[in-house]
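Journal club side-thread
Mid-discussion, someone asked how the predicted structure for our own chain would compare to the paper's figures. Pasting it here so we can look after the session.
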Amino acid sequence: METMNNEQKYFKSILSMVLDGEGNRQEINFCMNKVAHCTYCRTQFEQEKAVRECIKKYNSHVLPPQDLLLSVQMISQSPVAIYV
């Protein structure tokens, strides 16, 4: 098994954040460039995306616990919307 280089380590450390839509433009560009040019990064990206799609497909109707919603409402002092 090959060891990861620093760019691959960085890619792996920010991949979830980028897929969650929380990465900045520089992080997104870095990830997309690595996916296009690095087999390891492309594989990691495809696997992570497949896992997320599977989770979304089979857990799309699971609502968050009511006590969690109430806690978030108390902290934010505003109603929390539930998207189903």
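Post-session note: The radius of gyration is 17 Å.
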